[in-house]
Amino acid sequence: MLELNGIDKSFGGVHAVRNVSLTLAAGEVRGLIGPNGAGKSTLVNLISGLLVPTAGTITLEGQPITRQSAHERARKGIARTFQNLRVFPSLSVEQNIDVARYAGRGAPLPEAAIDEFGLRRKLTQRANALSYGDQRRLEIVRGLALRPKVLMLDEPAAGMNEEETEALGRALTWVQREAECALFVIDHDLKFIMNLCERITVLDMGAIIAEGTPEEVTKNPKVVTAYLGEDAGTDA
Ligand SMILES: Nc1ncnc2c1ncn2[C@@H]1O[C@H](COP(=O)(O)OP(=O)(O)OP(=O)(O)O)[C@@H](O)[C@H]1O
């Protein structure tokens, strides 16, 4: 459905993404992990259109989108959340969701999404009165209300405690079953990613060093060394 071919991105002397090729199937839940500075956010920015690659191509359902604006890509079904929250602070929860519904691709948001993400009783509250966790959940529901083909989540569990993270995992599993969109999820919480994702892509210094099931990736010595750190090998 979404295909990246030989994607490269340099910022001056920093080669942030190196020759990345990957394919995301419709409805797939893919994790993207890697150490700080591995290039994860840059890759998401390249897919969503905030950045243009130095080389390589991106296609959505066979159509090239490499040079299209973020706005055009959003209309075609690529949605995302940000590491830093971007809800409309002075609008209510419901208004935030409605803005996305109108901007979206037409299909209605399954009402149950509002329940799954625990926002039903908070619909009339202003977004800036919500807890941090609720603002993060609102961002996801807003992304879903666009009815995307792929929703990219940049560190959705950041700042959440274990209980909240588990609930988020359950809600995202519901999304996978009910919302008919693929998820591309960056997070540093490995347990969260391993429980949620069928396949995981591992980036290190801008390049893909492994891809596979959570089990395959965890056992990969390159991942153990690069991602978990030099010391992790001695514990494995
Ligand atoms: N706009 C930019 N200008 C210059 N360098 C950048 C820019 N954006 C990212 N970089 C550099 O590109 C590399 C990859 O950064 P990126 O933020 O994509 O990594 P990341 O894997 O998302 O890291 P983290 O887990 O810390 O969020 C880093 O060396 C970073 O400093």
UniProtKB/TrEMBL annotation:
Matching Pfam families: ABC_tran (PF00005), BCA_ABC_TP_C (PF12399)
CDD domains named in the record: ABC_Mj1267_LivG_branched
Boundaries of every ABC transporter domain copy: 2-230
Any one GO cellular component localisation term in the record: plasma membrane
GO molecular-function term, one example from the UniProt record: ATP binding
Keywords, ordered alphabetically: ATP-binding, Nucleotide-binding, Transport
Protein name in UniProt: High-affinity branched-chain amino acid transport ATP-binding protein
Organism of this sequence: Roseobacter litoralis (strain ATCC 49566 / DSM 6996 / JCM 21268 / NBRC 15278 / OCh 149)
